[in-house]
């Protein structure tokens, strides 16, 4: 059974199941979901807890299997937590997890929590994960998209008796806050806790109203970026965000070659799909044949009808030059510094996507 995290509270009101699988890369959301399950279980008398962290291919699963059937003299209900940081339980683990899932049926004395990172398509189709979903409840915890972050921050601030000023100033404050913590919800949560300590409400019945200056002075820049989100920001024509993300990736020590690959691959994909459209392929077929999925699919659909073949050819040539710069070669009329060249390449593609966004359809 699959369950959305927003439905967990309502689900628990109807009763606690004996097996839950939480999977996702957002540490804060996984932690809070697990905390909610543990707290509810403790209210129902699950007083004992054991934690098993699966590390390495030679992990001994016999202890995990034994813990599910053994209770101490001081507890009649227990929580067994199985953490698999790699998301790969291995052959023995696959068999053990299927046994654990089957055994969970009708077992009111043990609550089993399985914590996993974000799973790829092949892993999520494995027999062990299928058993966990079939016999228990599976909750996928997706990272928040950048556009969702200001509203999430406002909601979390409200829980700590904080709010921003009304109107345009408040929206500016939330956007600034989101820029500082993008990709790092755990740090965002910590920053909100810090704000609550710095600016407590004078009246406990009313939220403290924070100004832009107060948030700007207090909130650290703890944003974390990855090249895949960078790619989406470029295709969406978000120039300022792209520049900020490139600076963040550079400060985090990301490899220039990987950033270049992401940008160049998008340009090549745009060219391949454009050629397929020119050959008479329908857009959905052209995208599918070139393995363009998810959020990028909609971005490609918006950009491609407006971008010319000549523009794409020029972008391909620019990507080729930046490939040389990243590898230590100099190119006429281009910055010698790899990151400056990546900024320019990303800016060229981003400008095309931004102008196409504004163009009438």
Question: Could you characterize what this model shows?
Answer:
- This protein is α/β, with parallel strands linked by helices and about 350 residues long.
- The chain has 3 domains: about 1-140, Rossmann fold, CATH 3.40.50; about 145-220, Helicase, Ruva Protein, domain 3 (Orthogonal Bundle); about 225-360, Up-down Bundle (Zinc Finger, Delta Prime, domain 3), CATH 1.20.272.
- It is built from 17 helices and 8 strands.
- The strands form 2 sheets. A 6-stranded parallel β-sheet has the order 1-6-2-5-4-3, with helices on both faces. A two-stranded parallel sheet has the order 7-8.
- α4 (about 90-105) links the parallel β4 (about 80-85) and β5.
- The protein starts with a strand and ends with a helix.
- The mean pLDDT is about 90.
Largest sheet report: 6 strands, parallel
**CATH homologous superfamily classification of the largest domain:** P-loop containing nucleotide triphosphate hydrolases
* H/I helix tally: 17
Structural class: alpha/beta
Q: What is the CATH C-level name of the largest domain?
A: Alpha Beta
Calculate Rg over CA atoms.
25 Å
